[in-house]
Design goal:
397 residues, alpha/beta, Rossmann fold, Aspartate Aminotransferase, domain 1, six-stranded parallel β-sheet, 27% helix, 13% strand, globular
Length: 397
């Protein structure tokens, strides 16, 4: 184990007993680059070494190797798997490709899921796990989820945002919960099995040593980029709010070295934006004006007036509040230039991306109607409180 290691993940515990519960089983695996143990060894070679009968590999968004950019079709490449193992992408070129077909599970006894989540409803790995569970319910396949820390901790008071309304269900809003859910991956699996009444045989391997008041550094585990634009744990702390910028014509900092922490647009004055938004961002955060030049995606190779979000206290920042403040200020400062994304988003073209991300069209309508940040946040309170109550039975720590 690496020094300073305090938490053992579900994978660490499986490795310590030689994957005993998989012996004699025909196994499928849903994993990505962050599916490593405390010594940075990836689950795939560990399974092969232990003699697990691996029959199929599934790659989520960004692929098994995590190299594809967001919304880039993934054609799974060979990934060091033993010969004869089938490799499937769960992020192809259309909406149907996001769900495993029953045929993919043919001949499998169990599908093992080992993914590092970020703790926000629109981070798609947990949705892929949910779709695996739904298919497994149809095929009678067992699902085994190896738990990992929620990098944002798991306290009740950190639940943020509105619930998901049925007409806004999509890959970035697959299951009804607030945007920041404060669940671990295994708890998420238990929650959706209950909420969606998924009749699947589900086995959860909990962590040892994790508590809900831990940030990621406190676990002693190595940070591996779970996706190409999540380079650091700092990015994860602002992501539940900052991903909303994907539903706008503001750059969310993709194409820079600090995605989500930096954001901006060519038509914004960073100083004015920082000053205006700072009045509403709340505690735990400072906005610093800067000039950024994304190298790809929105506003590629153009200088953008922008801000960097500096988190000064992780346990008081409310990233949804921060990003609402940034959206509110950008609309006020540049009403002619600011706009919502109108192109198709995650295979959906008949609803705005911002509404899919919020899980409702109400926050956008309120922003457009000039409502204050505080008023918009107030509309989330009921959904937040209900979820905190409802999730208690599935909490494992």
């Amino acid at each position: 184990m690496m020094s300073g290691m305090k938490v053992l993940t579900g994978l660490d515990l499986m490795v310590s007993d030689g994957f005993a519960s998989l012996k004699g089983q025909r196994v499928g695996l849903l994993a990505h680059p962050a599916s490593v143990d405390g010594q940075l060894r990836h689950i795939l070679p560990l399974m092969v070494e232990a003699g697990v009968d691996l029959q199929a590999l599934f790659g989520p968004e960004h692929g098994l190797e995590g190299a594809a950019q967001d919304m880039e079709t993934v054609t799974e490449q060979s990934s060091g798997e033993p010969s004869g193992v089938k490799v499937y992408s769960l992020y192809g070129s259309d909406e149907a490709s996001l769900r495993p077909s029953p045929e993919m599970f043919s001949g499998l006894d169990v599908v093992v899921v080992d993914l590092q989540d970020i703790g926000a409803r629109y981070y798609t790995y947990a949705a892929s796990m949910g779709y695996v569970m739904q298919t497994a319910a149809r095929t009678g396949t067992r699902v085994l989820v190896l738990d990992r820390p929620n990098p944002l901790g798991g306290r009740d008071e950190d639940v943020e945002g509105p619930g998901l309304y049925p007409q806004f269900v999509s890959f970035v809003g697959a299951f009804n919960m607030p945007i920041r859910h404060s669940l671990t991956l295994a708890e998420y699996a238990a929650w959706i099995r209950k909420k969606e009444a998924i009749d699947v045989e589900l086995e959860l391997v909990p962590m040892k040593g994790w508590s809900r008041t831990m940030d990621f550094e406190a676990t002693g585990l190595p940070w591996i980029m779970p996706s190409p634009n999540m380079p650091t744990n700092d990015a994860a702390w602002v992501y539940p709010g900052q991903c909303l910028l994907e539903g706008t014509n503001l750059s969310e900092g993709r194409g820079t070295t600090r995605p989500f922490e930096q954001c901006g647009a060519p038509w914004l004055d960073g100083r004015a934006w920082a000053e205006t938004a700072s009045q509403d961002v709340g505690d735990g955060v400072r906005l610093r004006p800067l000039l950024l030049k994304p190298m790809f995606q929105k506003h590629a190779n153009r200088y953008c007036g922008g801000v960097q979000i500096h988190v000064v206290d992780r346990w008081t920042i409310r990233s949804l509040r921060v990003s609402l403040a940034l959206l509110h200020a950008a609309r006020r400062l540049a009403p002619q230039d600011f706009g919502w994304r109108v192109e198709a988003y995650e295979f959906v073209s008949d609803r705005l991306a911002i509404d899919l991300l919020f899980g409702s069209d109400q926050p956008r309508s309120l922003l457009e109607g000039g409502a204050s940040v505080a008023d918009i946040l107030e509309t989330f309170r009921e959904d937040e409180a209900a979820f905190v109550e409802e999730r208690q039975p599935v909490l494992m720590y």
